[in-house]
Task: structure prediction
Amino acid sequence: MISKFLRKFYLHLVIWTILLLLPFITYLYQPDKIADFKIYSALSHLSNIVFLASNFYLHCYVVAPKYFFGHRKIFILFIALGFVAYVLLNYAIVYFNPNGELAHFKKENILFVRLVVGPGIIYSLCMITSSMIFLYNEQARQKELNKQIALEKTTAELTILKLQISPHFLFNTLNNIRWLIRKQSPDSEGTIVKLSEMLRYILYEVDGPKVELFKEIDHMRNFIALQTLRLPIAGEVDLQIESSVKNRMIPPLLFIHFVENAFKYGVDSKNSPYIQFQFIDIPGGLVFKSVNKILQYTEHQPNEGIGLTNVKRRLQLLYPNRHELTIKRTADDYFEVALRLMTDED
Result:
């Protein structure tokens, strides 16, 4: 662990060591001045270096990651407070100097330069360097994150395609369509159109990183309509969308796993199903809810499996600290999912 830390920060250690020893290099060329060495000056220099180093890393690894992109005013406030603290530190060093530096600077009319201008230049260089290192690290992190997102998206899409375009799903859907045609049902043509639109969406419209929310909702409508055809007993299957829900851009195929699971565990041949989906508008985002009466019981809980693992992983990559997924089974055997997404960028 220590060797890994040293490999990462060895250049930092070298630079701070040089800055710490810089005032004392002159003694190598003028050893006679060692007699003029003052411990107070050395301690003052050390306190400056410790303060700058502390602010440098606090800014680079705490303040900038938290506030640089989303809360610029707070970010600037932290920098301003650090500068004020640095000025006060230098004032304390000058004020308590036993050699009377304060009176000397006042007499020479350079107190403002010594306490504000000089520290301002040094502090600004420190903060600029810290910000550049943060931005460089952030760019490298973002590249790696994009690679992971692309990989996870491909994995998730393949898993979802297996769930939705499986031979079993197509066989049952086509059988239902054949049954409608034999009955000369007016719904047969619409059902074929829904299946066609669903397949077209999955095969051709989910290549990009994001799609329009309403396209995703239309895809869900088609999926629900096709699944409803297969219900052995009529029941309540409902998709509710608040009128205030905005047409945001979201990652494709993010909700369909929960829809598929609701039908998988909420339908049997003896009971009337209850399945409900909701899209609710909230400031800066939306909430998706899925509720179904559990009618199919298996050894595994409905909220387990590869599909859910993929969804959780995608959410961690796509909405870090901007999502909340709640999954629970109620005492009266209802399965509830609530996914809160903060889709709007700060």
User: Anything to note?
Assistant: The two ends are 36 Å apart (CA to CA). The first helix runs from residue 2 to 21. The beta strands are 211-212, 236-241, 249-250, 274-282, 285-293, 323-329, 334-341.
